[in-house]
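Late entry, written up from scratch paper. The run itself happened at the end of the previous shift, but nothing got recorded in the book at the time, so transcribing now.
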Amino acid sequence: MEEQANTSAKWKEKAFNVIFKADSFWGKMFDAILLVAIFLSVLAVVLESVGRFRINYGTYFLWAEWIFTGFFLIEYIIRIIIVKKPWHYIKSFFGIVDLMSILPSLLAFVFAGAQSLMIIRSLRLLRIFRVFKLTQYLGEASQLSTALLASRKKITLFIATVLILVSIMGAVMYLIEPPESGFTDIPKGIYWSIVTLTTVGYGDIAPITPLGQIVASFIMIMGYGIIAVPTGIVTSEMNKNRFKIDNRSCSNCNAKQHSDFAKFCHNCGEKLPPTS
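Output as recorded:
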């Protein structure tokens, strides 16, 4: 019994090093195979959404789906077996992604209407974060989310201002332009204002009167400035989080409020004492 336990422990350790780490040859090989399987499975989902491919190659897509589902299901079960705390893995972000990527196929086998959930299979792309070890960059993502959260009031005020602006401009264009230009009601005018202000410019509705074209030109020019506002707000918050203000005082002019990375006084240029 003890020998079997040792054999099982060694097997789990080897499997753990191959599946969860990429330091060895077999670990890199497993990641490469996993990456190819993820790419092909998502490619199958994309091609299956094309009508002519689904009609002509539907059977092949079905077989491919079950092969990939079986592969990912076996991998998911092995991961649960070899980790020391299976429940922690199941509840983790990647554990949920692994489960959600195979769940639609399993549900489709039981419930006839579950085919509509097949689009969730695209979650397999998130597994690339694990394969390429991109989780090391989640700190930068956390910094961005913190900046967005800190500037939410400013951004909310900005969006509210933009909504009021496009509503007014949409109503003005409805009054200025004749119905044949496409401004048949105020909602159409608001839609045109949003498209124009964001510099998208679909061209499905366009002003034909000189006054309407002048107003449209004003909105287009204003759009360039408005687009830059959220970027400036978020960038400012990110800089606040990155460069903190300390209480060091300049020995020459007694100026305070220096950045923690500053070596010289921002007022007189005197060398500052080191950060405590």
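The chain has a mean pLDDT of 77.
(Scratch paper discarded after transcription.)
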